[in-house]
């Protein structure tokens, strides 16, 4: 893949942080930021309001309202299409969104439809950020609705990666991992006497139809299988049930792990590409099945929160009765008796 022909698109705040990190990592990428709030754009180092930012006119955030976001992008569809057509050289457009929010979550379906029409020759990849299972009911519901939107236009999407927010403790850790992993995947190329991955090979792997995975391998483990097992365990991407894939790309440090042993961990239906370098170990899978287990867990978490909400009994008021002597009566709430003043009214004291 040629980085100058990759267009990174951030829909909303969470996505903007990741795209900003990738642009800081490598200035060769092109980047666009779409948002409904200037407040979300200001902290981003690589977002230039006069160059690569599109703010929906007359808006001030979506408030995590997906319906509002859908209305905003439809109102701006022509302008967005015109902007995207300024990047006709784009070979791969990578669209980032947080699934639990509003601005990106609600816009993702319409945006991909606009992008597909604006640059018909580009391949559209998606990086969708799943929430943690502990997030609130609205976040989980938005995620499921966003999942359904994405699946309804899967024919327009090449590679899709789902980021699992349960894998790290903070958003910053997740963002940093996503940036490092994707930059390694897009930098998969290498030339070596024992194997070469050229730009077309990298493009084929990174844009295969289906779910994509990136595994960073740690140095110093006893064998290749142990390295793969640990990489899968630590991966920030949602994992499928099986690791069957269309394409497998392996780029390893010279004199390190045996790539043939690594390849045994995966069922590859089309091609395996191998090369070597001096700095890192990365394995990229293209064309895997969708990691449905992750969304099923989110649905279970939402059902649990919805059930507990229905069972909740929220008390908003309490009437206190008085006896003839002006004292409060005990009630079922367990409130202690209070004394009253001479006028028969409750007295309040503030320290």
Automatic annotation (TrEMBL):
Residues 324-351 are annotated as: Disordered. It holds the Pfam family Tubulin. InterPro entries: Tubulin/FtsZ_GTPase_sf, Tubulin_FtsZ_GTPase. GO terms for molecular function: GTP binding. Residues 6-157 form the Tubulin/FtsZ GTPase domain. This is Tubulin/FtsZ GTPase. It comes from Clostridium saccharoperbutylacetonicum N1-4(HMT). The lineage of its organism: Bacteria, Bacillati, Bacillota, Clostridia, Eubacteriales.
């Amino acid at each position: 893949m040629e980085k100058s022909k990759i267009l990174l698109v951030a829909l909303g705040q969470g996505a903007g942080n990741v795209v900003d990190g990738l642009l800081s990592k490598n200035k060769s990428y092109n980047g666009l930021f779409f948002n409904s709030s200037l407040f979300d754009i200001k902290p981003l180092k690589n977002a230039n309001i006069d160059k690569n930012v599109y703010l929906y006119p007359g808006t001030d955030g979506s408030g995590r309202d997906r319906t509002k976001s859908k209305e905003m992008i439809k109102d701006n569809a022509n302008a967005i299409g015109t902007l995207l057509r300024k990047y006709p050289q784009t070979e791969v457009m990578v669209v980032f969104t947080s699934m639990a929010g509003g601005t990106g979550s609600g816009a993702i379906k319409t945006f991909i439809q606009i992008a597909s029409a604006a640059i018909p020759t580009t391949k559209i990849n998606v990086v969708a950020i799943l929430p943690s299972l502990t997030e609130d009911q609205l976040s989980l519901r938005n995620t499921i609705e966003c999942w359904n939107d994405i699946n309804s236009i899967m024919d327009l999407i090449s590679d899709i990666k789902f980021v699992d927010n349960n894998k790290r403790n903070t958003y910053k850790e997740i963002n940093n991992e996503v940036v490092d992993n994707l930059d390694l995947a897009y930098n998969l190329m290498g030339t070596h006497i024992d194997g070469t991955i050229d730009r077309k090979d990298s493009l084929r792997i990174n844009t295969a139809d289906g779910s994509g995975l990136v595994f960073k391998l740690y140095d110093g483990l006893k064998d290749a299988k142990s390295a793969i097992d640990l990489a899968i365990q630590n991966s920030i991407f949602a994992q499928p049930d099986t690791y069957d894939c269309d394409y497998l790309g392996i780029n390893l440090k010279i004199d390190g792990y045996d790539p043939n042993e690594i390849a045994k961990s995966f069922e590859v239906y089309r091609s395996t590409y191998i090369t070597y370098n001096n700095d890192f170990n990365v394995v990229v899978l293209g064309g895997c099945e969708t990691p449905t287990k992750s969304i099923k867990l989110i649905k279970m978490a939402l059902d649990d929160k919805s059930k507990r909400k229905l069972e909740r009994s929220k008390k908003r008021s309490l009437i206190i009765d008085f006896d003839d002597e002006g004292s409060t009566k005990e009630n079922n709430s367990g409130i202690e008796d209070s004394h009253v003043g001479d006028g028969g009214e409750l007295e309040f004291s503030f320290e």
